[in-house]
Design goal:
By secondary structure, this protein is α/β, with parallel strands linked by helices. It has one domain. 29% of the residues lie in helices and 12% in strands. It contains six helices and five strands, in the order βαβαβαβαβαα. Strands 2-1-4-3-5 form a five-stranded parallel beta sheet, sandwiched between helices. Helix 5 runs antiparallel to helix 6. Bound molecules: zinc ion. The site of zinc ion has 7 residues, from loops.
Length: 220
Amino acid sequence: MRMIKGDKVDKIYKVKQITSLYESCNECGLPIINCICNKTARVRTTAKLWILSSEREFHRPSNTARLLKLINPDSTDIFLWERTKGPEQLMENISKEKYNVFVVFPTESNEELDRRKVEFEPTDRIPAFIFLDGTWKEARRIFRKSDYLKRLPIVSIEPNNGSNYDLRRGAAKGNLCTIEAAIEILRMNGEIETSQTIENYFNLFIKSYKAGVSGHEIRS
Ligand SMILES: [Zn+2]
């Protein structure tokens, strides 16, 4: 999986295998027999999707940010979160006038969060959304410990249909995974057709993942 570090150096992270039978593809994260890298047309969303991720996430096969990067490469960027230094490229992006930047954070309520929550309204500027990727615990830590996120408005998404994502044990019910959150955000931004293409790809991922766990090849 490729990502942007503060110094813009790409590094390949090895994705953990989900079956002992086959290696995993480092791009889509699936066992190589079920690799879906070439099973979709690429899209290019108007909204920028910036993912701030814990490093552990890069090794998890159930990660869906890499899937978003695969299908929407030009408008998706993944940044490594580090406790000791902020990601330079992301901080530079945030400061650019041309972007209208929001942090996407799940529904949770406290005084500070409520004060920063906004309703998303399209403007002349390019909408850009920062997603925090990791377990719930990791995402909260990223949120709390990153000063460069503190002044940004928050959008929360309340999914209509709940989550289809059941690849992780212990995930809170109703919490969307990263790609599902992105799909909701794109709908909110009026990118209906593109969000549907991404959703179809996500559904193919889930199906291929589940077949992959038992070492089965997916029939298409
Ligand atoms: Zn692949």
